[in-house]
Amino acid sequence: MIAIEDVGTPRRLLGAFARILAAGALLTLAGCVVPSDGPLTHEVLSAGADGKSYEIPQTKLVFDVVNVDQRVANSVSAAKRYGLSSTFGFGGGGGTPVIGVGDHLEVTIFEAGPDGLFSTTERKSTTIPVIVQPDGHGQIPYVGSVRFAGMTIDSARATIVDALKAKAVEPDVIVSMAGNASRTVSIQGDVNKSGIVPLGLSGQHLSEVIAMAGGAAKPPYDTYVSLKRGGKSRSVLLQSVIDNPKDDIYVKPDDQIYLTYDPQTFAALGQTKKPGKIRFDAAKLSLVEAAALAGGGNVATADPKGYFVFRYEDENVYRSVVGDDRFRDLIARGMVADSEGRYPIVYRLDLGATQSYIVAQNFPVRNKDVVYLARHVATDLAKFLTIVSSGSSAAYNIQRTADLL
């Protein structure tokens, strides 16, 4: 026969276990990590080179966090970015062009007498077409083989006149370029007429060569132009070639030009109303305009003091913003450039300050920037209280079940 106290023992054990489950549920909720959608403002600041989290071993990327004021905005806006001239130089007007292999020449020879080698009673001259052969030579009657490759038009004329003085009657010669095969550039990609473009004797600017190819097929603010010369290459926005005359460099024979349609975009992340990849659809874009394209911030969750722009910046711009000493210090700490020689930086704008809306009008957003609006710290607290509240209800039900046992 089973005793009554023996029957109560399992119930007491089950009740104690239930109370342990209730306490464990509350402890788990109290120690949980609140779900987030990006770092808080203080976490971004702490991740910078001077932040508290800088010395954490996992933090390998060294960068500076810079507060955007009028000086910084002006420095970023006015600083010159590396363009084509920084890589290739501006060049000259083609120098003194010379004849090359494949060129099509027209050699017109005049004589004073009516019955000369190149004249008759009806005409005083004869025009001879000459194509410069692979060995650099071309044939002229009564002169023979003439090496044209490497000669200027004037020197070619003088050579032919000298060779004819003892054979023709008071000869005179005109040499003209009928077809240019040796002084050409190739242009491909998003142009209206790709192909081989011959260069004139006076030299052409990059914009002129693009025009000779029918112009860009897409808007210049969404088109990149790449120039390859020898072992060097560089790409810039076609709009910068238009806006900056120093980037409208002289092209040289055998240059390779490629136009690529790649719309300028920035990524809007965090507490913006329209997060995602957003196109500029304009030649230039300010931070205020970018914020508007992203729909502004979510009033209930955004931290106006935490509006950030993440980017890789050219060295000269970086130095103009932080100063040479600061830049050298960051390099000493381990800051490294990307494959294009640019360095990581984070710009911070405090939208809680009235003047920030004026400053932001002069701060340019660049292609591939990440514009991030941090959430307010109170958002995490609200999430935590919601979780605890729902968890407390569950714990209460567990406890009540235990009390009934």
TrEMBL record:
Entry's Gene Ontology molecular function annotations: polysaccharide transmembrane transporter activity; porin activity
Domain Polysaccharide export protein N-terminal per the UniProt entry, residue ranges: 98-177
Annotated keywords: Cell outer membrane, Ion transport, Lipoprotein, Membrane, Palmitate, Polysaccharide transport, Porin, Signal, Sugar transport, Transmembrane, Transmembrane beta strand, Transport
UniProt domain Soluble ligand binding: residue ranges: 185-235
GO cellular component: cell outer membrane; pore complex
InterPro entries: Poly_export, Poly_export_N, SLBB_dom, Soluble_ligand-bd
Membrane topology label: Multi-pass membrane protein
Subcellular locations according to the entry: Cell outer membrane
Domain SLBB, chain residue ranges per copy: 265-372
Superkingdom of origin: Bacteria
Gene3D superfamilies: Outer membrane lipoprotein wza domain like, wza like domain
Gene Ontology terms describing biological process: monoatomic ion transport
Family: Belongs to the BexD/CtrA/VexA family.
Protein name per UniProt: Polysaccharide export outer membrane protein
Organism: Shinella granuli
